[in-house]
UniProtKB/TrEMBL annotation:
It comes from the Eukaryota. Residues 4-91 form the 2Fe-2S ferredoxin-type domain. Its cofactor is FAD; Mo-molybdopterin; [2Fe-2S] cluster. InterPro entries: 2Fe-2S-bd, 2Fe-2S-bd_dom_sf, 2Fe-2S_ferredoxin-like_sf, 2Fe-2S_ferredoxin-type, 2Fe2S_fd_BS, Ald_Oxase/xanthine_DH-like, Beta-grasp_dom_sf, FAD-bd_PCMH. The lineage of its organism: Eukaryota, Metazoa, Ecdysozoa, Nematoda, Chromadorea. Keywords: 2Fe-2S, FAD, Flavoprotein, Iron, Iron-sulfur, Metal-binding, NAD, Oxidoreductase. GO terms for molecular function: 2 iron, 2 sulfur cluster binding; FAD binding; iron ion binding; oxidoreductase activity. SUPFAM superfamilies: 2Fe-2S ferredoxin-like, CO dehydrogenase ISP C-domain like, FAD-binding/transporter-associated domain-like. Residues 222-399 form the FAD-binding PCMH-type domain. This is FAD-binding PCMH-type domain-containing protein.
Length: 457
């Protein structure tokens, strides 16, 4: 099979990258091949946010580009194929500093400066999507960015100045302190930003039309010293790979798999990334159900609930995932990847809602099963060789459905679970049905006895 050439655009410049190792990360390529060292390398495991860049990808469903913050230290370069990559060098320059950079610098938000590019790009991704965010949305956008010297107050004050009147909309507490204080949040600020340049989306780099037209109908094939990668455009190619190879691993983004195998000197594996197959990215709805493709990212998974389900369902789900991980990780990691590795919040949600899961078996046969029938007592998925989870179908939760979520981590957000809980109830005059999933650490279980005790209460 002929090696593929990756095609993408960095800061307005077309890049054709040949002979790429599948394990090459976006950060490595930006720094070592393009000299864009504004993208910093810190933890190299997606925890500090110093490597944050913005990926623009064309969304065929909505016919527009979507911009997301990602951890370049984790993102395999092949995931940037046919995408626009924006780095801190691309949005501003010494001749014309970007408004985000301007406010962060003049607002005393930078000291050593190592974390600053990551904060800038996380905020940039948010503003490209939502030019007038709330304080809560800004907090969520930068929760995956760590600062070890400046302190968060000047950084956050600079970024909050882009918000819609700075109101938290009551999401930071049971009451809205902004409104209780007469709508004023300007007390004791280090600096005011009223006269600073505004963010203007019309002045930003546009998504290149060539990337829309370039989408290939051919499989993507890369080969490195340890790993062979195929990104197929058809299910037939997936079947052929399983028939011809003994050591085949299905991945979506491949971030977790690369971290998991990084210490193995001789991997010699074949990775098959199914993230580009249309059925894996589909979102379909009826009056009673919503079906979500398995390659949909966790952040899009949560947004789908917000778009198609009642607030009594979507708000508790959003609050649970606000504490799940950084936006950079959630923008790339698929929900099915989280389910297969036992990420507790994902598993708890699936056990509580018990959706129908569509599975494609090797050879093309499709089956469906309830998630409770696929997870064993240790929380592991029971799938045949070559079987791929294609999607999950959830009920669109009628007006009498109520959802409860809770998570306690070692810190308020973007942290591993100590304990979490997801409960789905049908309540009219009393609790008619209940399904409660509880997770201790990474082990999620369905609490059937508690669910039974609550019925009729």
């Amino acid at each position: 099979m002929e090696l593929s050439v990756l095609r993408f655009n960095v800061n307005g410049k077309d890049i054709h990258a040949a002979n790429i190792d599948p394990e090459t990360t976006l950060a490595s390529y930006l720094r070592n091949h393009l000299g864009l060292t504004g993208t910093k390398l810190g933890c190299e495991e997606g925890a500090c946010g110093a490597c944050t860049v913005v990926i623009g990808a064309w969304d065929d469903r909505w016919k527009k580009a979507r911009y997301s913050a990602v951890n370049a230290c984790l993102l395999p370069l092949y995931m940037a194929h046919h995408c626009l990559v924006l780095t801190v060098e691309g949005i501003g320059s010494p001749k014309k500093i970007h408004p985000i950079q301007d406010r962060l610098a003049r607002g005393h938000g930078t000291q050593c400066g190592f974390c600053s590019p990551g904060f800038v790009m996380s905020a940039y991704a948010l503003l490209r999507t939502n030019p007038s965010p709330t304080i809560h949305e800004i907090d969520q956008a930068v929760k995956g960015n760590l600062c070890r010297c400046t302190g968060y107050r000047p950084i956050l004050e600079a970024l909050y100045s882009f918000g819609g009147k700075g109101c938290c909309n009551g999401l930071n507490s049971t009451a809205c302190p902004c409104k209780e204080n007469g709508g004023s949040v300007d007390q004791e600020k280090l600096i005011t930003f009223d006269d600073f340049p505004k963010f203007d989306e019309t002045q930003e780099i546009l998504f290149p039309p060539s990337l829309i037209m370039e989408k290939s109908a051919n499989d993507l094939y890369l080969e490195g010293p340890r790993v062979k990668l195929i990104v197929p455009v058809s299910w037939r190619a997936v079947d052929d790979l399983f028939r011809l190879n003994d050591d085949v691993t299905i991945v979506s983004s491949g971030q977790f798999t690369r971290l998991q195998t990084a210490q193995s000197p001789n991997q010699c594996a074949t990775w098959v990334s199914v993230h580009n197959l249309p059925s894996m990215r589909a979102v379909e709805t009826t009056e009673t159900e919503v079906s979500i493709g398995a390659a949909i990212s966790i952040s899009e998974f949560v947004k789908t609930f917000e778009e198609y389900c009642d607030a009594s369902v979507s708000v508790p789900i959003r609050k649970l995932f606000d504490k799940y991980s950084s936006m950079q990780a959630m923008n790339v990691a698929s929900w099915v990847g989280g389910l297969l590795i036992g990420a507790s919040e994902i598993t708890s949600v699936f056990l509580a809602f018990n959706p129908k899961v569509a599975i494609r078996e090797l050879g093309g046969a499709f089956t469906t099963a309830r998630i409770s029938d696929l997870i064993d007592e240790q929380g592991r998925m029971k799938l045949n060789r070559g079987a791929v989870i294609v999607g999950a179908t959830f009920q669109r939760c009628e007006k009498h459905t109520r959802v409860f979520t809770f998570k306690q981590g070692l810190r308020p957000g973007a942290d591993s679970t100590v304990v979490n809980c997801v409960g789905v109830f049908r309540v009219e005059h009393f609790i008619e049905t209940a399904r409660i999933a509880v997770s201790f650490g990474s082990n999620a279980v369905l609490s059937e006895k508690v669910s039974q005790r609550l019925r009729g209460k």
